[in-house]
Amino acid sequence: MLFSSLTFLFGFLPVLFLIYFICRNNFAKNIILLLFSLIFYAWGEPKYIFLMLFTVLIVYIFGILIDRCDKTKKYIRKKVFFIICIVLLIFSLVFFKYSNFIFQNINNIFGANIKTLKIVLPIGISFYTFQILSYIIDLYNKKIKVQNNFFNLALYVSFFPQLIAGPIVRYETIEEEISNRKESLENIVSGAKRFIIGLSKKIIIANQMAIFADLIYNNYSVSYGTSIIWLATIAYTFQIYFDFSGYSDMAIGLGKIFGFNFLENFDYPYISTSITEFWRRWHISLSSWFRDYVYIPLGGNRVNKTKWIRNIIIVWLLTGLWHGAAWNFIIWGLFYGFLLLFEKLFFKKVLDKLPKFICWLYTIFIILIGWLIFRVNSLEQLIIYLKEMFIFNKTDWIFILSNELTTFNSLIFIIPAIIFSTPIIKKINIKFGGKVWYTTIYNIMLLVLLLVCITCLTSSSYNPFIYFRF
Q1: Which of 230, 209, 226 minimizes the C-alpha distance to 367?
Q2: How many CA atoms lie within 13 A of 302 on its CB side?
Q3: pLDDT digits (tens, 9 = 90+) for 200-214
């Protein structure tokens, strides 16, 4: 089930609201949220709900064991329990997400004949595994208290707003809110507004960008040349941002409605003037997760240069793998890893002296190439499209327009995509947000956007979501 679906908007959500807000205590509310979260997950993948709950049970048991060892000062046993728990969690992720990729590459390299497994990737396994890893690691490091209530821990992991596509919420962020929170009309209204903004990003902009990007990337034609490949890459660049940031907005808004405060996940990444800045603004919850649980434990930048380079490459190799079991994701991760090293070691001094606009052009150029690597369906397609982008080839526009004219209508939405990928609207809200006339117009516009979204959903079944597969 997607947030941007009529089933969710007019079925799941109203029923949940009605039952949830009838309840008067947090215990009952948590049970309702847990049950509905499980229904939400089971809607898309019923059998894997047991895998998620079994994962929660493992961490629940090991969490209690680690806490008891800590209290009785049995530190060696505590470390053993911690390592076993980490290994089990990582094994589960590797088995379900990467086993077939590993087998296929062994077959290709060594000429083996290992049969691939008939495994369907569990929805959101990367997100909820990283969340629960952060819980057990923080518990081991005494940053949080053990959760003795299984249902509360299950709610933390399975809470539907962030379950299938993040943001990756750390336990310490909502530790108090699970047991003690208060909903307010102000937060409900604020959360609803944030949800509508996210829904609009997804339905009105991302889906339109996807129409054109999918046409070019999924149906290669000899009529495609340099200009149309660049145009499709620009469309996909906006698609993935408004798709993912829109989902994060909806998750943050829903969390606020139910009394939870999630951290921001995007901060206008396309205004960045360096790749380093871009990764401080893009998918913040994932970047900070790798920083805190991989990069810093490896020594971060407090080690010699060789080990520091190793640390960055490891982090970005894992970042690429986290996104998917395919070589283009590995290349994408290493692409950014080496670029960040290049910036930090050599290019930062140059960037500091250049005009901001030139720095932005350099950054957005790199981002476009990165999303091309991320989007392609195979390494063969990657080579073909890179060649088309950098060795000029004429696009047969007459042939393409005669066959796909209606598809090009979606490119009109590049204009609002450019505007809303910058903080222009945010600055206007800050300047006029306290004025009654502006607030009235703003609220009316949000209602109009909601109606437009509903109209789009009722008139079209095209509603892809990129991060659903991660």
Answers
A1: 230
A2: 6
A3: 999 999 999 999 999
Taken in order 322, 327, 328, 332, the sign of the CA dihedral is positive
In this predicted model, what pLDDT tens digit does every residue of 98-156 receive, in sequence order? 999 999 999 988 888 888 888 888 888 999 999 999 999 999 999 999 999 999 999 99
Domain boundaries, the chain: 6-181, 187-266+392-469
Do the beta carbons of residue 335 and residue 353 sit within 8 Å? no
pTM of the model: 0.93
**Amino acid in the structure at residue 439:** T
- Alpha-carbon distances of 140 from 53, 55, 84, 168, 249, rounded to whole Å: 21, 17, 12, 19, 31
Question: Any idea which residues carry the catalytic annotation?
Answer: 323
174 HSE (CA, 13 A, CB side)? 27
Using CA atoms, how far apart are residues 248 and 162, in angstroms rounded to an integer? 8
Vertex 261 angle, CA 53 and 26, to 5°: 60
CB atoms within 10 A of CB 62: 20
Q: How far apart are CA 141 and CA 68, in angstroms?
A: 14
